Each structure stands twice: as structure tokens, then as C-alpha cells.
Description:
Its cofactor is a divalent metal cation. This protein is α/β, with parallel strands linked by helices. It has a single domain, classed as Survival protein SurE-like phosphatase/nucleotidase (Stationary-phase Survival Protein Sure Homolog, Chain: A, 3-Layer(aba) Sandwich), CATH 3.40.1210. It is built from six helices and eleven strands. The strands form two sheets. The chain has a nine-stranded mixed β-sheet with strand order 3-4-2-1-5-6-7-11-8, sandwiched between helices. Strand 6 (124-129), helix 4 and strand 7 form a beta-alpha-beta unit. Helix 1 packs parallel to helix 4. The longest helix has 15 residues, at 143-157. The radius of gyration is 19 Å and the shape is globular.
Amino acid sequence: MRILITNDDGINAPGLAVLADIAHQIAGPDGEVWTVAPAFEQSGVAHCISYSRPMMVAELSARRFAAEGSPADCVLAGIHDVLSDTPPDLVLSGVNRGNNSAENALYSGTLGGAMEASLQGLPAIALSQYLGPRTRDLENPFEAAATHGAAIVRKILSLPGDDTDYRLFWNVNFPPVPAAEVRGQKLVAMGKRIGTSFATQAQLSPSGRRFLWIRGGDQRSPATPGCDADVNLDGYVSVTPMRADLTAHDRLSSLKDAFA
Length: 260
């Protein structure tokens, strides 16, 4: 198996090394793992592509490339340039430093990479490690993902394929606990944290100029019962099938008369 890996934390992020190990376990001794990841951190860029400017791609070592672009750019570069002779069989994105559960999924460059792979017709899985007080003092904060990641990926790959126009990609979030305390995995929907969201925080520079920082919300806020963030905080790995189709299918029938 030939696997392409990427992330949004950057080519030197420790989570990417964890993902490389997971990918090697999946690819097997006769497989190949190729890395095309952002040269610099690209957190929060979602499915952004560098449509209006070119990007430089540099080979750092064998099968390891850094691109001056977003995770979606990296997937495009991997498929259509680096691996243009033989496209990958699978794209893995992550392991993100921090969760991409609930509303975080909408901002996530990690998911943006997986989404682009799905739009290119390839199976894709995004993996993220929820962090918290229980992971802060671990020698490896990505311990849960490192221990359970390969098994989760194998389980997803064992499922029936999907060849719809907007094919499935997968959002996997590992809970903020040590690996030995992971209680299992649950197939769940994307949820919403209640009473929290991204916001801005003003700060003056030493020269007196005013700048705004984007500030995240409380990641331990209660979330939709039974959703991804909710089960993560209960010690479970969340597995969520997703599509790039943004249509509100639940409202199409009820709204048709208004536009007849």
C-alpha cells in the first residue's frame, strides 16, 4: 500500500511523526509512506487552497517533502506532482495537536487535507489528539493516538467502499486520557459545544498599535449529548463519517414550496 500523509501543524510537528508510525504499520513492510506537509504551521486554515499564488515544494529527505501551502495544497501537490506516477491508495492527515471535534472540525486544516483527498477520489482519514489535564504530564501527549491509531484506521479501511460524488472521509478524535484509559471507540455525529465559540482578544503592541488575536473557546464545555466532543470527554475515540456536501438535505423538502 502507498500512503500519503500530511498535517496542519507543520512538517516538524511531533504529531506527524506519530502519524508516520501509524502509516508504516498500515502500509506494511512492502508498502510506502510519503510525506507532503506544510513548511510552517497552518492550523485553522480549513480547506483553503493557494489558488492565487504558487507554492514551493522542497524535498527534505527520501519520500519527505515540505510545501509552502495549506494541508489541502499539500494533498494536491502529493497526488499531482510528487506521486503523479502512481497515486496513493490512502491519505492520512494529522495527528493534530488538539481536538477537531464539534465546531472545531469546520476550521480544521487537518480535516481540510482529508476533504481534499476525498474530492480527489481517494479514501482519507483525519486523526486528532484531544489534549487536557490528563495528557499534560505524559511523556508523549499523543500516547492514545499512537497506541490505538493503527487499529482504528484498519477498522475504517475494512468497511465497504464509497464511490458517490462526494465520497466519505473520516474524522477521528482520540480522547484526552492516557492510552491505557481509552474506553473504546464510538461511531458518532459531529456535535456542537454549548455556550462557547471562537472570539477575538485585543492586545497593544510595544509601539502602541492595536492587534486582535483569535481566541478559542473552552474545550471542556458541555457538547451535544452523544456527539464526538461528548464521547471524547468520556474517554472514547470518536469516529465520524463526513462528506464535503454542505447541502442541508433535511430542509430541502420543507422549503421547496417557497421557491416553486
